Amino acid sequence: MSREKQSRREFLQAGAAGLAALGLMKNVKADAIAFAEPYAELNEITIARLQARMKSGELSARRLAEMYLERIREIDPKLRSVIETNPDALKIAEELDKERKRGKVRSMLHGIPVLIKDNIDTADRMKTTAGSFALVDAPVPERDAFIVEKLRKAGAVILGKTNLSEWANFRSTKSISGWSGRGGQTNNPYILDKNPCGSSAGSGVAISANLAAVSVGTETNGSIICPATRNGVVGIKPTLGLISRSGIIPIAHTQDTAGPMTRTVSDAAILLGAMVGRDKRDLTTNESRKGEKDYTKFLDPNGLRGARIGVARQFLGNNAVVKAMMESHFEVLKTSGATLIDVTFSEDFSKTGDDRLQILLYEFKNDLNKYLAGRRSPYKTLADLIKFNEENKEREMPLFGQELFLQSQSKGDLTESAYLQALQKVKRLSREDGIDAVVVKNRLDGIVSPAVGGTWSMAAVAGYPYITVPAGFADNLPVGIAFFGRAFTEPQLLKITYAFEQKTKMRQTPKFSPASA
Predict the structure, then answer these.
(1) Which CATH number fits domain 34-311+447-504: 3.30.70.100, 3.40.50.620, 3.30.230.10, 3.90.1300.10?
(2) Which of 253-289 are b and which e, b meaning 16 or more Cβ less than 10 Å from the residue's Cβ?
(3) 11 exposed, middle or buried (CB, 10 Å; 0-12, 13-18, 19+)?
(4) 248-257 residue pLDDT tens
(5) What is the pLDDT of residues 337-393, one digit of tens each?
(6) Across-strand partners of 234?
(7) Domain segments of the chain: what residues?
(8) How many CA atoms lie within 13 A of 486 on its CB side?
(9) Per-residue pLDDT tens for 393-448?
(10) What is the SS3 assignment for 305?
(11) Listed residue (64, 66, 37) closest to 52, CA to CA
(12) Does residue 188 contact residue 180 with C-beta atoms inside 8 Å?
């Protein structure tokens, strides 16, 4: 047996105490690891570092995919973040290795393993189900989602699909974040029985646990930002229209978008640029001409110098630890050269909760029925899904019901005045009277706050960009700090967030602690 294989076997067979005794794990208690961690050298590795290793010949795309797949096999049974792996991943990686040997490197994503949420279509041997058994036996989509086409063209290896809150958390008023009938319960990697947040729980957990290089989530209202925050990673909810939604199981076309979930701002910038583009199947992407193909050019470690940043202290909340943490980070922004201006948002938007829900209920039935019509599934409408859930209660509804499905089914079409008036109201309060008003009045490059619902909901309804970055820990769980602004200001926000990240470096690798007592 070779020395490499022998060391590998010892690594997998050793428990936490044994690894600590061997000196392979420093400053880690013996009971902190619930299972073996293969290929720990992948922890926190960046796209740039992986590209350097592949360029030098030290690593191949196939070997990298193998390593991540083994990490998934060993680690993910405790986390349940990956709902399915791609049976063709190694073959795809091999072809990309051949291209590299011929001197062709498509982009910074060439050979990089990417996990995507299980509501994003892939025309391959993987399923696209939104976590529901209703779509498990449906024919696979006839074509990739537009963003998957873009990722494949960039040379990414689609490694698998991630678990999610079923139907992107829009089935029940009592749903459980990170739970789906097909995938079960996704667990937080820092404390296994704590909420991973949804609906892109699997994408956040998998990347936090270093099960792939980067991942893609989707958001309607906090579904990228909340799991990114809760699992200690970077999340970008981009401007509506920057990234296509075609081939993504929808909730609401006036808010839905996909976005990067990564361990670093630089990796998020790379992944974001790869997905931007105009798509004839999603006319909102006509606005993507205002975007960039390369967001990495805005990554400036001194990017806070001269920046004008609004501080939204009204969203600090009552947690003393979080408040102190945020005030400390505001001071970092200031000492790094930013001008901070206290800003206040009107309370009017916070009073629109019912209006916002009504919009989603109207759009969900309309948008989902259009999607299902193209899936060649026996379930072609929301009404069909409601019936399926009733007939399969044991599997689909053991923990909660389908109240939102029923409420949505009762709505009319998108010409009804109740829908149109609610939409006009919330757009005005989130945009003209909300983010736009604050930014213009104070001549801001961005706004900072804790990553909380009060701000991410405003940005989601407005369709404006929002980025969360790890900020520290409270009660042993990650906390995020958010930067947001007007439409298509991703360059300014990335400049600010990258500089903040480089100054603070608050991201910590989870140690996979057992569930709390």
Answers:
(1) 3.90.1300.10
(2) bbbbbbbbbbbbbbbbbbbbbbbbbbbeebebbebbe
(3) middle
(4) 999 999 999 9
(5) 999 999 999 999 999 999 999 999 999 999 999 999 999 899 999 999 999 999 999
(6) 262
(7) 34-311+447-504
(8) 14
(9) 999 999 999 999 999 999 999 999 999 999 999 999 999 999 999 999 999 999 99
(10) coil
(11) 64
(12) no
- Is 500:472 a contact under the CB 8 Å cutoff? no
The predicted pLDDT at position 49 comes to: 98
For β-strands 214-219 and 257-262, DSSP reports them as: antiparallel
Rounded to the nearest 10 degrees, the angle between the axes of helix 490-504 and helix 320-335 is: 100
Could you tell me which of 326, 329, 229, 213 has the C-alpha nearest to residue 274? 213
CB within 8 A of 400, min separation 6: which ones? 171, 172, 174, 175, 176
CA atoms of 205 and 512, how far apart (whole Å):
11
Q: What average pLDDT does the structure give for the chain?
A: 92
Tokens for 58?
């030290």
- Are 206 and 215 in contact, with CB atoms under 8 Å apart? yes
Residue whose entry in the numeric block shows the structure tokens 């009592």: 174
Across the range 313-319, mean pLDDT stands at 97
The predicted pLDDT at position 37 comes to 84
Gap between the Cα atoms of 44 and 47, Å rounded: 10
- Residue 201: CA atoms inside 13 Å, Cβ hemisphere, count? 32
Q: Which amino acid type is present at position 336?
A: S
Whether 141 has a pLDDT exceeding 50, the answer reads yes
Residue pLDDT, tens place only, 110-132: 999 999 999 999 999 999 999 99
| R_g of the chain computed on alpha carbons | 22
User: CA angle, corner 43, sides to 202 and 267, nearest 5?
Assistant: 70
Neighbours of 79 (CB within 10 A): 26
CA separation for the pair 183, 205 (Å, rounded): 14
User: CA-CA distance, 88 to 95, in Å (whole number)?
Assistant: 11
Tokens of 187: 């667990």
Which among 480, 509, 510 is positioned nearest to 497, based on CA atoms?
Answer: 480
The residues, any chain, with a CB within 8 Å of residue 353's CB and separated by 6 or more, are: none
**Span 162-175, average pLDDT:** 97
> Measured between alpha carbons, how far is 510 from 312 in angstroms, rounded to an integer?
30
Length of the chain (residues) = 517
Which positions are annotated as active-site residues? 117, 199, 223
Tokens of 166: 């079923």
User: To the nearest 10°, the Cα dihedral for 196, 202, 207, 209?
Assistant: 60
**Alpha carbons 10 and 68: distance in angstroms, whole number:** 19
